[in-house]
Amino acid sequence: MMTASVNAANDNSSVKPRHVLCFLGGENARAHLAEAASNAIRKFATGFNVDTQYSLDCADPVMERSFGVCWDRVAPNGWTPADEEAVVNHQSVLYVLSPPMTAETAVIISTAALFLVEAVMTAGAVAVKGESAGVAHGLVRWRQLVLQASGALTKDDDFTVSRACRLAFARRPLEAETYLESVGFHLVGLPEVYVAKNLGSPREVVAIMDAVADEMIEHGIDAALKRRQARLSFATKFAPDDFKFNPYGIAYVDRA
């Protein structure tokens, strides 16, 4: 839950991020989707678990609004009217949680999360949302991201794997008074990136945000911050028990 207070965090924070994945299905589909998730957990998603408290074998009336505000608006054609219709007509809900992650394990666990998404979609999930950053994609876009990660894995391309996971599970841009903001970069072990709005159009600012994140992956966080003359802050509007809380801080970028 967001709070008005400012909280501090650092690299040694005891807070460890987790994925919360939300799957929507058809009538009486919860058990079938849960079985698909459990099979994925046994095969490759070690430490994940299927939630039994909040999963439902009925429609959840908040989902239409929730997905409506979470659709990714950066990727062209990231969702379709058919995806929106699937959310409206869903009849079951399944939640799956990842194990807690460190900066060192974040990409490995996020990759497993992405392939778990693929497994549950193959079993019939009609819509998928990453709750930890509040981002949803259409089924075609989810599969594109899975293919990107899968292809990169076969080439031992860690950079592209991390990037695919970031595009899958983080959300940007969120608008604030002075900056456009990211949320969810902690799910790949990175600080958030906040870019000054006066550096260009929203699309141009998002391109800077993504470029800075790419540089952090490729060259390291410290080198990217130095190159961009960015400042790292550990003050955040999210409470430590919020899934959006980033223990790795926020990089403020004021120059292109």
Question: What Rg is obtained from the alpha carbons, in whole angstroms?
Answer: 18 Å
Q: What does the largest sheet look like?
A: 5 strands, antiparallel
Mean pLDDT: 94
Stretches with pLDDT under 50, minimum 5 residues: 1-11
Ends apart, CA distance between termini: 32 Å
Number of domains: 2
Number of E-type strands = 12
Explain the overall architecture.
- The protein has 256 residues and is an alpha+beta fold.
- The protein folds into 2 domains: 2-14 and 172-253, no CATH class; 20-164.
- 39% of the residues lie in helices and 21% in strands.
- A 5-stranded antiparallel β-sheet has the order 3-4-2-5-6, sandwiched between helices. A 5-stranded mixed β-sheet has the order 7-8-9-12-10.
- Helix 5 packs antiparallel against helix 6 (158-169) and helix 7 (202-219) crosses helix 8.
- The radius of gyration is 18 Å and the shape is globular.
Short description:
This protein has helices at 30-43, 63-70, 81-88, 106-122, 139-154, 158-169, 202-219, 221-228; strands at residues 2-8, 20-25, 49-50, 92-97, 127-130, 135-137, 171-175, 179-183, 192-196, 231-233, 235-238, 250-253. It has 256 residues and is α+β, with helices and mostly antiparallel strands. It folds into 2 domains: 2-14 and 172-253, no CATH class; 20-164.
